[in-house]
Specification:
The chain is about 30% helix and about 25% strand. The chain is an alpha+beta fold and about 425 residues long. The protein has 4 domains: about 1-170, Reverse transcriptase/Diguanylate cyclase domain (Alpha-Beta Plaits), CATH 3.30.70.270; about 180-230, DNA polymerase, domain 1 (Orthogonal Bundle); about 250-365, DNA polymerase, Y-family, little finger domain (Dna Ligase, domain 1), CATH 3.30.1490.100; about 370-433, SH3 type barrels (Roll). The strands form 4 sheets. A 5-stranded mixed beta sheet has the order 5-6-1-7-8. A 5-stranded antiparallel beta sheet has the order 16-15-14-13-17. Helix 12 packs antiparallel against helix 13 (about 315-325). The chain starts with 6 loop residues before the first strand and ends in a 7-residue tail after the last strand. The structure holds a DNA duplex (18 and 18 nucleotides). This is DNA polymerase IV. It catalyses: DNA(n) + a 2'-deoxyribonucleoside 5'-triphosphate = DNA(n+1) + diphosphate. Belongs to the DNA polymerase type-Y family. Its EC number is 2.7.7.7.
DNA sequence: TCTGGGGTCCTAGGACCC
DNA sequence: TCTGGGGTCCTAGGACCC
């Protein structure tokens, strides 16, 4: 904690939804929900008009639709969000060289590194208001909420107090007066699980947390979190604003509208994800040694497996080969809703092939199931079961006849299914790159 | 058909080394 | 041949954040 209110936290209000309303005037003043469009999607951002109906982040699309059926549901234009975010971050860097982005819509700014006459409350208040006006200008009308205080913790807490389009400055010396009546859930890092543990120990507010000894908190929550919360309950936070932080992992994952049971299909999807991870690594000039997969089963149980290579790689083919081998250890008979591939243990150098050709080795390729050849029913003509992918040969009287073949393996066997047979799954094409 | 995607950090146990 | 301890790496899982 500093003696001056020199840490600024800026939060763009309902960011994704606000960009959509900016770019499409017909959406202004109306409920807009970004995310939650797919069969298993969740809400990423709801505009304030939609929040009135109880729609919020991380809510399932199904529930959001039930609460606010007349909202505009959008899948998101991340390029536009990234571009707008860049403009905002540049405004912050014009104010101070020490800017720490937390996400596309949030950042800390160290005002002690800015060129200001002093750090009095009146001065930083004016700086904050100017900053909010400037953000409004460069974004074409987006609003931001700002918190300014003597530490990251307090600045972030402060920026939550006057949303949207507001600002809160916490004068040095008043931090504990502000914190003590608040619930422990305002502390970043206290989520549902930690809150429940604290609640069982009779701790609801920060004032109550402050009464608990450090030993007791460590016993309750473990060394790192116990010690951390003991400090935050006293407004003790000396974490610096750090401008550049290097990525520690890169991953790609996907949730599928219906559960996967076909191992060949899973291997094909992992292969595709591995290629995407490799491409992103090369683009960023990094490589890594530990390849991980993530598998979420039908019942939401989440498994992970990883393998550490003797030397770093950025090669999608290698990553894919390891990923498929890791999948081989897992029992996926109940069905899989999510698959993911990641690489960690990153180094900012590349071991080999720095300028070499990047053609992939053909013998490592896994053949993806064939694309649709006929249409029945609309959008669902290519299907698969545990035998692999197939396509609909004919249908009638509630029965579907499927040929299990691909261009590589004709002619395949023909089987008939009832239309509602749970063994028959719609083939979900992998997302576009 | 409750429960996204891309991350970070922490814990805990076992291997292995000194 | 009584049991030792620390440090690092690896793996799996969990909590949390936006």
């Amino acid at each position: 904690m500093r003696a001056t209110a020199s840490v600024l936290h800026l939060d763009l209000d309902a960011f994704f939804a606000a960009v959509e309303q900016r770019d499409k005037p017909s959406l202004r003043g109306k409920p807009v929900i970004v995310g939650g469009t797919g069969g298993r999607g969740v809400v990423s951002t709801a505009s304030y008009e939609a929040r009135k109906y109880g729609v919020g982040s991380a809510m399932s699309g199904r529930e959001a639709r039930a609460r606010c059926p007349h909202a505009a549901f959008l899948s998101g234009r991340f390029h536009a969000y990234r571009e707008t975010s860049r403009a905002v971050m540049q405004v912050l860097r014009d104010l101070s060289p020490l800017v720490e982005p937390l996400s596309l819509d949030e950042a800390f700014v160290d005002l002690a590194a800015a060129d200001l006459p002093d750090l009095e409350v009146s001065t930083v208040t004016e700086v904050g208001e100017q900053l909010r006006r400037r953000v409004h200008e460069v974004t074409g009308g987006l609003t931001a909420t700002v918190g300014i205080a003597s530490s990251k913790f307090l600045a972030k807490v402060a920026s939550e107090l006057d949303k949207p389009d507001g600002m809160t400055v916490v004068p040095p010396g008043t931090e504990l007066d502000l914190l003590r009546p608040m619930k422990v859930t305002v502390i970043p890092g206290v989520g549902p699980a930690t809150n429940e543990r604290l609640r069982r120990a009779g701790i609801h507010t920060i004032a109550e947390l402050e009464q608990v000894s450090e030993d007791e908190l460590v016993r309750l929550l473990g060394q790192a979190q116990g010690h951390g919360l003991w400090q935050l309950a006293r407004a003790q936070d000396s974490r610096p604003v750090v401008a550049e932080r290097e990525a520690k992992s890169i991953s790609v994952e996907g949730t599928y509208d219906s559960d996967l049971t076909d191992r060949r299909l899973m291997e094909g999807l992992l292969t595709r994800q591995a290629r995407e991870v490799g491409a992103r690594m090369r683009k960023n000039g990094i490589s890594g040694r530990t390849v991980s997969i993530k598998v979420r089963l039908h019942d939401f149980t989440t498994l992970s497996r990883s393998s550490t290579l003797s030397s770093p790689t950025d090669d999608g083919t290698t990553i894919g080969r390891v990923a498929r081998a890791l999948l081989g250890d897992l029992d996926t008979t109940g069905g899989v809703r999510l698959l993911g591939v990641g690489v960690s243990g990153l180094a900012d150098w590349v071991q080999e092939d720095l300028f070499g050709d990047d053609t992939e080795e053909a013998e490592e390729e896994v053949v993806l199931p064939e694309p649709p050849r006929r249409t029945w029913p609309p959008g669902a003509d290519v299907v698969h079961d545990e035998m692999g992918p197939g396509w609909v040969w004919g249908s009638g009287s509630g029965v579907v006849t499927v040929r299990f073949e691909t261009a590589e393996t004709p002619p395949g066997p023909v089987r008939s299914f009832r239309m509602d047979d749970p063994a028959l799954h719609r083939w979900e094409p992998p997302p576009e790159d």
